[in-house]
Amino acid sequence: MGHVNNAVYVNWLEEVRTSYVYERRGLRTMAEVDFILASITIHFRSPVYMLETIDMRCAPVRIGRTSWDLAYEGHAREGGRLVVEAVSTQVQYDYAARTKAPIPESWRALLTADLVQP
Question: Of 22, 66, 83, 97, most Cβ neighbours within 10 A?
């Protein structure tokens, strides 16, 4: 069909989300990750054609007690065409107790510093 399959977008969102969290928090290993993905809503705005390069970005748009939302945009590098918008909800998680947990204050401060209006 000449365009990227819609399932690929979820991987792109995971890559930009992981990069954002690792860079902002200074994480080094997967063992340091203390959240789970709760949901993703994706709006496909324009097809991505084979061999196109897409620039993805994300930023926090909501911070709760135990969860936080990231909003994403993806643009075609050549021409800047909007191809995708999405929002994901992450829940802070205590893997040992297998339950949600409050957002650590140090992480809350970083999210707050980056917070944008949706």
Answer: 83
Long-range contacts of 77-82 (CB under 8 A, 24+ apart): 77/52, 77/53, 78/52, 78/53, 81/46, 82/45, 82/46
Exposure string over 24-34, b if 16+ CB within 10 A, otherwise e = ebeeeeeeeeb
Q: Tell me what pLDDT residue 22 has.
A: 93
Q: Are strands 99-100 and 82-94 parallel, antiparallel or unpaired?
A: antiparallel
Residue 31 has pLDDT above 90, yes or no: no
Amino acid at 60: P
Helix axes 8-25, 105-114, angle to 10 degrees: 110
What is the mean pLDDT of the segment spanning 63-71? 98
The pLDDT of residue 50: 87
